[in-house]
Amino acid sequence: MNKKLIIISVVSLMVVAATIIVLINKNVLLSPAAQNPGGCNSLIYNGENGINLVFISSKNAAESYSNSLFSLSPFKENPSAFNVYYIDAYTPECEIYKGIALLCYSQEIIEKASSCPSDYIIVVKQEDSSIRSSSYMNVMSLNSAATKSVLAHEFGHALANLADEYTPAEIPRKSENCQSGCDKFANQDTCFQGCSKTDFYRSVENGIMKTLSSTSYGQFDESLLNTKMSQKTSTITGSAISEPIDCSNQNYYLIEGNYSQQNKEIKIMSRSIEQGCSGTNGAGPLNYSLILEDNSIYSGGEFNAELIFTDGQQQNEQQISGENFPSDKPFYLKIQIVENAKSLEISAPETKVSIDLTDLESMLCKVQSIENPLPSPEVSCTDPLSSAIKIESVCRNKQNNEMRAKMQRTPDSPEVSLLSFELFNNNNATKWICGGSCSSCKVLQPGETRFYYFSTDEQLANDASLAISADECLLGRKQITAAYS
């Protein structure tokens, strides 16, 4: 009898244990997916080599706009070519460009979007229905008061450098959908006069690049879009079971520049290493190439820093009322970091510039910005590290806002694995690191003197200072001077 009781008790315990395990597993399975620290959420994932669309909007808006885009040819025939992400915990600062169009383009927006794999950035905001949407570089700024098809129109500019097919407008250089004659359209039986310019021709009477009432780009424009998609997705594996890339473990070069077609000049304003994923930068007449030490080209791409497209269409209008403007904005390029990179070459049809990347080991990585930070410690720690590294100077180049810290390490100093640089300016603190997750940057060796570089677009106060630590041991705090060029 006692044996039966023991057996029953053991069986009961086993049942209870199994139930607990099932409940634990059930809770694990039903728990929400982990969110990227930068606020990136995955909506559609088809593989790491897909074209990455990042919406800065609510989840519902991202779903609605992406469904609208993927209902159109040639995208509906290639659904696995795209990944879709959204960031809903960030409200970007935008402007009403020239009083007529929503424009959301800034370094902050580019950096926020890089918490996701981001080839194209789509910002959705509610404005009055009279305000147009816009496209510049790889960023589309959509007024949600417009019809959803405005995304397809702006994406035509960003993905394939398509010109507006209404008149009047400026034809982007190297654009192919507006032609000087009907004979330029292969396999087309008809064409129609008026394509940006009154004496140029389009391949379709009323396509998406002419009117937001259309549901078709037209056969010729679709072929141009397909060409761009195939260039970007030629290595897609089609894997739908792998996880999206964690961009918090990635870094990229961020290049800020200005381009003037009138002056035939490309001017580099700043360069930095930022945390996040790189991506493509649009389509257009300007090109960039990443050059390795053996002078081979590792990768490249194109972009359009010449024109800002603005487009809108009221309910009683039959075609788009729009205009494109010569850009008066900087451009930002996100470039993949690779070993043995020598330089980045940026070229326009009439000029080019080369950026030296050989000092990568001295370029810091930005990791965070903090509003209303606590004051940094005013005294150094007693650790032997406190005297191991001396801060010689902290200077700023007024021409490009690049910061430079000169440091010297004693020959017999203890091991150092991480350097931290914290900029205190007004009520903000911004932190950069060298070493640790910023593996491209090298901590100076015993006996070595080295310059470290980083960039900031902040207007520095007179009392702005930089606190530098080694493995969390404060080395010192220096006021910033403008002393080198």
Q: How would you summarize this macromolecular structure in one to three sentences?
A:
It is elongated and about 80 Å long. Helix content is 15%, strand content 36%. It has 485 residues and is an alpha+beta fold.
Strand content: 35-45%
The radius of gyration is 27 Å
What is the name of the CATH class of the domain at 361-479? Mainly Beta
Low-confidence stretches: 1-37, 235-241, 375-379
Task: Note the main attributes of this structure.
eight-stranded mixed β-sheet, disordered N terminus, 5 helices, 15% helix, Immunoglobulin-like, alpha+beta, 485 residues
Description:
By secondary structure, this protein is α+β, with helices and mostly antiparallel strands. Helices cover 15% and strands 36% of the residues. It has helices spanning 2-30, 59-69, 107-113, 150-160, 219-232; strands spanning 41-44, 51-56, 82-87, 95-97, 101-103, 120-125, 133-136, 139-143, 192-195, 197-202, 251-260, 265-275, 286-292, 297-303, 307-312, 321-326, 331-336, 341-348, 351-356, 365-371, 389-397, 402-409, 418-425, 428-435, 449-455, 465-470, 473-479. The strands form six sheets. An eight-stranded mixed β-sheet has the order 1-3-2-6-8-7-15-16, covered by helices on one side. It has an eight-stranded mixed β-sheet with strand order 17-11-12-20-24-23-26-27, with helices on one face. A four-stranded antiparallel β-sheet has the order 14-13-18-19, with no helix packed on it. A hairpin with a 2-residue loop joins β18 (341-348) and β19 (351-356).
